[in-house]
Amino acid sequence: MNRRGFILLEVLLGMFLLGIISVTFFPIINSAQNNLYLLETKNDMKYFAETVLERIKAFEFDSENDEYILDMRLKILMERFCRETTAEVELPIFDREEYKYLIKINKINQNENLWKIRVNITSKENSERIKDVVLEAYIPKPKRKR
């Protein structure tokens, strides 16, 4: 009995089944990889928003730190917040192509010693698939030591 033709037929059938399985699962794997990328971007945006809030919370006028939020000095931002009852700042101010995210910071005076800060982070890439990250916090107004 000639087994050569039978083995060739088994190999061709195996390759055919493998091709069907790979064509079926390739879109699923591609979609999962894309969703992981979007999740990573969303987590990065959350971390960035938390960092902005923590920098504003920890700010002291008398410190010599030269901190920035994107392209704006934190000291200039805080001086503006102290002057105005409600303020909105959009960052970056200048070169928007250099940064991955756009930030909108809103400040509202709740009373003379308490601010409500809202940080809104928008991704420039995949903006239709990734919703904005919005964090709010109530923080005490920083005091100037004279």
Question: Would you write up a description of this structure?
Answer:
The structure is a single chain. With 146 residues, the protein is an alpha+beta fold. Helix content is 44%, strand content 27%. The protein has two helices and six strands. The chain has helices at 4-57, 74-83; strands spanning 68-69, 72-73, 86-91, 101-111, 114-123, 133-140. The strands form two sheets. It has a four-stranded antiparallel β-sheet.
Largest sheet: 4 strands, antiparallel
Shape: rod-shaped
Strand arrangement in the largest pleated sheet: 3-4-5-6
Quickly count the helices.
2
The string of secondary-structure elements, in order, is HEEHEEEE
Helix content: 40-55%
Alpha-beta classification: alpha+beta
Termini gap: 103 Å
Primary descriptors:
2 helices; 27% strand; 146 residues; alpha+beta; 4-stranded antiparallel beta sheet; two-stranded antiparallel ribbon; 6 strands; 44% helix
